[in-house]
Design a protein that fits this description.
Strand order of the largest sheet: 3-2-4-7-1-8-12-11-9-10
Structural class: alpha/beta
Helix content: 25-40%
Strand content: 15-25%
Distance between the termini: 17 Å
CATH superfamily: Thiolase/Chalcone synthase
Number of strands: 12
CATH topology: Peroxisomal Thiolase, Chain A, domain 1
Order of helices and strands: EHEHHEHEHHHHEEEHEHEHHEHEE
Number of domains: 1
Radius of gyration: 19 Å
Shape: globular
Largest sheet: 10 strands, mixed
CATH architecture: 3-Layer(aba) Sandwich
Amino acid sequence: MSTSTERVAVVSSALSQLKPAWDTVQHIDLISETVNQALLASGFDIHDVDVVIDCGSDVLDGRSISNCGFLGQMGAHHKEESRVEEDGLFGAMYAVNKILGGGAKVALVIAYSKPSESIVENYYRTIADPFYQRPVGLNKAVAAGLLANQYLTGTDATEEELAEIAARAWTRAAANSKVSDARAYTAREILDSPVVASPLNQLSLSRPVDGAVAIVLTSETIARKLGSTPVWVTGMGSAMESQFLSEREPGRLEACEVAAGMAKRFAGGKEATSYGFAEVSATSAADEAMVVEALGLAARGKAASAYDGDVDINPSGGAIPADPIMATGLVRMHEAANRLSGRVEGSSATSALVHASGGIGMQTHSVFSLEV
C-alpha cells in the first residue's frame, strides 16, 4: 500500500435500521435497501461496479451457500462475486487489495445478518473447537466472561469501570437514529442487570441485532472525479489469535495489537492518539476495554481513562448496544466514513481508526486507518 501510486477511497455507504428483530422483512429486503441507497449516494449504476463482495454466515442464515439466494439484490448477477464468511470489514480489506492490485476500479462490499432468526449461542458453538471447547459449552457469553475475568485479575481495572464503558455505549446509541430500542443506562443499572457470565451482566454484553450495510470503494482516479468528499484508506491490518483461550496472553488482545500496528505503520507511523476518533467492535465492555488498549489509546488496564481523552471512542455507540453479527465492523466503517465526509452535523474530525473482530472470544481482528 505504501508504494502504490493509487489510493483507495470510501465514496459512499448506507446502513439499514439496526433492530433486535426485523420480523416484517427478509434478508433480501435489508440487502436491497442498503445497496440501492449506497449506489444512489455514489452516483454509480450497478453496471459500474466491477466486483461485489458479500459477508455473512451460512449458519446464521440457516442454509449452505446462503449468499446465492441474495445475488440479485446485491447486484451481483453476471459479475465477479466473492463471499467472505467473516465480519464485513475483512470484506472491505479484500476489496481494497482488489483495487490496489488492478483487478477492479469500483467495488461494492455488503454485510448483513438476522440473528433474530437464529439461536446465536449455537452459532458461536459451531466455531468453537469440536473436541475440547464445544463439548463443555463454550460460547460467546462464556468466552467473554473468561476474558473479562482475566482482564480484571491481571490489571487494576474494576467492574465499575466496565459498567461505565457499557453505560457510555448505551447512552451514545440512544442518540443514534440508526439504532432501534436503545436507551441510556446508568452504570448502576448496568451492574444491576442480570449476570450472564460473571463478571459480565446482560447490559455489558453486546446485543445481537438485525441489519445490513453496504459500502462503495473506488480507485483514486475515479474518486477524484466524484462530487462527494472521498474518505481515503491510508492503512489496514489484520491478525488472528489462537482459537484456544488457554494459549492466549491473559487479559490482552495481542492479535488486535498486531493488526493496529500494521494499519498505523501503513498510515505513515501515526500514533493512535493522533486520530480524531475510533469506532471499535467488541462483544462485551471488557473486550472493548482491551481493544482500546490494543489500539494504543491507553496503557494496559487503563482503558477507562481513554474515554476522557482527545480521541473520541465510539461516537456511534459501538457494538455493545447493536451487534449485527458479521456486519458489525463494516457498520463501524460506515459510521466513520459518514463523520469524516461531513455527513454528520458538528463533526470536524479528519481521521479515524476502525476496528472489527470475529470468531469466538474475539479471535480475529481487522483495523483500518481512514483520513480525509
